[in-house]
Amino acid sequence: MHLKQAKGILSARNGMNISRGCTHGCIYCDSRSKCYRIEHDFEDVQIKSNAPALLEDALKRKRKKCMIGTGAMSDPYIPVPENLANIRRCLEIIDRYGCGIAIQTKSDLILRDLDLLVSINKKAKCIVQTTFTTFDEDLCKIIEPDVCGTKRRYEVLKIMKENGIQTIAWLCPFLPFINDTEENLRGLLNYCIDAGVYGILCWGIGMTLREGSREYFYKKLDEHFPGLKDVYHKKYGFSYQITSGNNDVLYKLLKSACREHGIVLGVDDLFKYMGDFEGKGQMELF
User: Which of 7, 44, 123, 237 has its CA 20 to 30 A from that of 206?
Assistant: First the structure.
């Protein structure tokens, strides 16, 4: 971990990352891609030490309240004291200014800040999102080795729902020949249904690979799934979009389950929902 003074904190669409890099160790992580220009070791997380001050200054100057999105690039609950202190202070500022939050994490450390999330939700809107990749806890420890398991994330979503906070599950990625099975999808859907998620985000049954993330992923395939890298090379070459051969069957199952249980499935609809500020009639997209 190392500290850095950042120049800004909110993107044009009110996205916020309080750190760069991650310690979760997910073998498929797109944030490792070279296009994001992370110049330090990915696991040596860069903490934006002045993130709370930058956020307060940005919100002071806004004419409208808004939804703030965080967690898309770097998990806000990286278990480093300085990082955890920053996200707590940022949530306090968001709460004080009456803005909303759409927060994405794989960590149960978010429960530490449940009081603030409930307070934000009463004034505006809070949405908590998490990623589900595999129902198999043993497999989870291989592809997401240093973060809480899928069952625990499901429990977090249940707790959020019980406290009136809407939740969204990201069902992705589906790694061909690893977790792209009907058994896995049904297990994840059962978690989503029982947790009462508002929506499911899924870009299809597959994954993405590009320079930086591809090399790391293939290294981990060699480590945990000997011979599978050659299968990927032969089938997908250097494609960015990797689609499972089970895509059509599994996505049809996903759509059917969402329709049956009243779960919103649709990237555009869900991102609009996460961006709509609900409070005093104002709308703004992050």
Answer: 44
φ/ψ (deg, to 5) at 92: -60, -40
Burial class (CB in 10 A: 0-12, 13-18, 19+), 238: exposed
Provide the token pair at 70: 């965080």
Determine contact, residues 42/22, Cβ cutoff 8 Å. yes
Structure tokens at 94: 């968001």
Strand segments (E) across 87-144:
100-104, 126-132
pTM: 0.94
Residues 6+ positions from 152 with CB-CB distance below 8 Å:
108
What tens digit of pLDDT does each residue of 204-262 get? Answer: 999 999 999 999 999 999 999 999 999 999 999 999 999 999 999 999 999 999 999 99
Q: 143, 133 in Cβ contact below 8 A?
A: yes
User: pLDDT, tens digit, for every residue of 217-226?
Assistant: 999 999 999 9
